[in-house]
Amino acid sequence: MKPIEIRPNVWWVGINDRVTDLFEGLWPIREEGISYNSYLIKDEKTALIDLSKEMLSDDYLAQLAEVFDISTLDYVIINHMEPDHSGALTRLLELAPKAQILGMPKAIAMLADFYGLTENTERLKNGQELNLGANTLRFVYTPFVHWPETMMTYLVEQKVLFPCDGYGGYGTLDGAIYDDTCADLDWYEAESLRYFTNIVAAFSKSVLAAIDKFADTQIELVAPSHGLIWRKNPGRIVELYRRWSEYYNSPAEEGITALFGTMYRNTEHALSAALEGIASEGVPVTVYDVRKTNVSYILPDLWTRRGVLVAAPTYEGQMFPAMMDVLMMADRKRVKHKQAAYLGSYAWSGGAKAAFDELAAKMGWQVVNAFDFIGRPQTLGLDRARELGVQLARAVKSAGQRSDG
Length: 405
Fold this sequence. Notes:
36% of the residues lie in helices and 23% in strands. By secondary structure, the chain is of the alpha/beta class.
């Protein structure tokens, strides 16, 4: 894509990444891709906000060269030091040796650790401003959104917020960079939720604190480092991030995420009965086979729904490994305040239920019912599973009523 002027003398100079399989080495983006959004402000002084990944430096520098003479660059604004934002920095400085690098104190310290850079740097203070001529940049410290050095940059006169990883999302920008010009806004919003749950959710308290810092600031354009630029309705993505972040300490939306793994379909038969019970109560449910679905795609439902049904057998005296991996990631991402239930098969001795009980207690889940059974569930076991589904669905509805009340 060509550089795009998003405001007078403010340019999007980002690039698309369609070659990385796993973002952060963890999260699948082979099909979706991701954008690295960088922004250039051309004024009496020129400033570059956020960069790109090192492996795409050639493409990135070619973008910049289309807009201005890189050797004249005055400032590099480091909102965040993670290498997908800063990786092109050393190559850039070869072409712009006089550019001064600005960041919060922790970011400047990381410059030395990551790239051995100690010259032409400035440690910023929270709220500090930089005059470029007709435009002024204000730097707001927003730690742990999602690293400790992160800040957001606000273009005062043009009311543009550059929030870095805040308000970001997966997905390449395929010819359109705005919320009002993309072909499928619902898809980008879903990928923003997946990005949030994968990358930012564990720091929800910090996200809410960052949102509050701009509560009295007029924002007409939200320009994150990944995903769409929000110009028609910039408040939309902010409110989505607020809503998602609030789920870290309160019940989420009505619905159940059913996770299952099975070796010989014994647990699957019990799951089917439990799903009948849930359906009878009219509660939405989405079923994930943890053997086939990457946890990246499971986390959005886990985060935004109040109920969790775990159906997994015992394996060598422990929880079925693929399920254990998902639950441990849920714990790492601080998926809390859930109504939960467990069922599963074992052959000669249990173990999965005990592992579930331990993890559920650690995450603060309210366990409505849990049982395991030997071998294939008989009629009594299926009836019990069906009742477990009913109880879980009712608990989910009840939790919502308590929250509303």
